[in-house]
Design brief:
By secondary structure, this protein is of the alpha/beta class. It has nine helices and 17 strands. The protein has two domains: about 120 residues, NAD(P)-binding Rossmann-like Domain (Rossmann fold), CATH 3.40.50; about 160 residues, Dihydrodipicolinate Reductase, domain 2, CATH 3.30.360. Helix 4 runs parallel beside helix 5, helix 5 runs antiparallel to helix 9 and helix 7 packs across helix 9. The radius of gyration is 20 Å and the shape is globular. Bound molecules: nicotinamide-adenine-dinucleotide. Nicotinamide-adenine-dinucleotide binds next to helix 4.
Length: about 375
């Protein structure tokens, strides 16, 4: 099958794993990279043996590139993605799809008009950990899913991140930062969400940076940092989700899914592997379940490879724009529900992504 040439825009922290892993899929050819800071693109190209270093404009104008992988900061996700679509290229964004619903909608509309694809991180749900849970649920092992819990709680990032201010500004906060992993995993197991309620608060009005080089700088907190949400899935299952930067310590699991005949302990959705445990009313104990035989190590870019296969064969891709927009819509809806004191019925929906094939070599995602 003809390879799909990709160009990466944004050569910062997360780009290394994409550059390394994208070269492990037969369908992808990592052809070019670009950054508004050209030295970053040059350094990454040298490290990961990428043939072409370009300016952003050159990369967008290169007719050989079919997919732009957009690894810029969240504030630039929409402008870079819209420029790529305008240039006639499919685009795969890091999460979140965009910051505002309006920008997300613009991207979906433009891609549909031009017959192009939009993909979006996270693609961790395509790893062995969550896919084992998807298979157990599809096989009916816990019966009909009725409930789920999801907890992502910590005390924020000002103790280690060199420049943590954006986490406390609009578009930051724990839900926009980590929610995409949890929500995408839940949707891959339970399908789309129909309505949400939520309570959101900022428990601390300021944060003091204790990492270097900004040690001692005080940040004003302009966005909620503790959000407790109820998610009513279209399937009828109800999930409780808490995301927080206000909690020092806890003992709660990342995700559990509870069904009519059993419960499932789901691994950290920010990884590809992890431990899956199953409790059934028949066995009445927690047993570890072996993972399905697909990638369990950090394979960021598997969503890009899946989209490339899908472009060639015409099938839907799994980490797609509709699902990422639904995730964005849910995150906004939780904030909106808290502000209004009411349930918010979602206007968006998406399909549950197809399970991953488990009988192919690791470098292939389609026969
Ligand atoms: N760092 C992580 O561990 C991590 C993990 C998962 C997801 N992400 C996501 O990946 C994305 C990037 O995060 P990061 O940590 O690599 O950030 P970063 O700041 O390290 O890198 C972003 C890069 O994009 C470049 N850039 C910004 N605007 C641009 C534009 N308009 N055109 C071209 N280049 C531009 C910057 O110069 C920078 O080199 C974010 O959406 C983040 O949410 C990061």
């Amino acid at each position: 099958m003809k390879k799909v040439k990709i160009g990466i825009i944004g050569c910062g922290n997360i780009s290394g794993i994409y550059m390394q892993q994208s070269q492990t899929f037969d369908i992808l050819e990592l052809y070019a990279c670009a950054d508004i800071v050209p030295e970053r693109a040059r350094a990454q190209a040298e490290k990961y043996h990428i043939p072409c270093v370009m300016s952003v404009e050159e990369l967008l104008a290169d007719p050989q590139i079919e997919i732009v992988v957009n690894l810029t900061i969240p504030n630039a996700h929409a402008s870079v993605a819209l420029a790529a679509l305008q240039a006639g290229k499919s685009v795969y964004n890091e999460k979140p799809l965009a910051i505002s619903r309006e920008d997300g909608q613009k991207m979906l509309r433009l891609a549909a008009e031009k017959g192009l694809r939009i993909g979006c991180a996270p693609d961790t749900f395509m790893g062995a950990g969550i896919q084992t849970c998807v298979k157990l649920i599809n096989d009916g092992v816990i019966g009909r899913p009725v409930a789920a819990t999801a907890f992502m709680m910590c005390h924020g990032h000002e103790s280690w991140h060199p420049d943590p201010e954006f986490y406390y500004k609009v578009g930051g906060g724990p839900l926009f930062d980590m929610g995409p992993y949890y929500l995408t995993a839940l949707i891959s197991m339970l399908g789309p969400v129909a309505r949400v309620s939520g309570s959101a608060q900022a428990s601390f009005s300021t944060r003091t940076i204790t990492s270097q080089p900004k040690h001692g700088t005080v940040i004003s907190v302009d966005t909620p940092t503790h959000l407790s949400a109820t998610l009513d899935f279209a399937s009828g299952a109800v999930a409780t989700m808490v995301t927080s930067f206000d909690v020092w310590a806890h003992h709660l699991p990342c995700i559990e899914v509870h069904g009519t005949t059993g419960s499932l302990s789901v691994p950290d959705p920010n990884g590809f592997g992890g431990k899956v445990q199953l409790w059934t009313s028949e066995n009445r104990r927690w047993d570890e379940v072996p993972l399905v035989p697909i990638r369990a190590e950090n394979s960021r870019s598997i969503g890009v490879a899946d989209m490339a296969h899908a472009i060639r064969s015409g099938r839907p891709h799994r980490a797609n724009g509709e699902m990422a927009y639904h995730v964005l819509d849910i995150m906004h809806a939780v904030h909106d529900a808290s502000k209004s004191g009411r349930y918010v019925t979602l206007e968006s929906t998406c399909r549950r992504p197809a399970p991953m094939p488990v009988d192919l070599p690791a470098n292939l995602l389609d026969d």
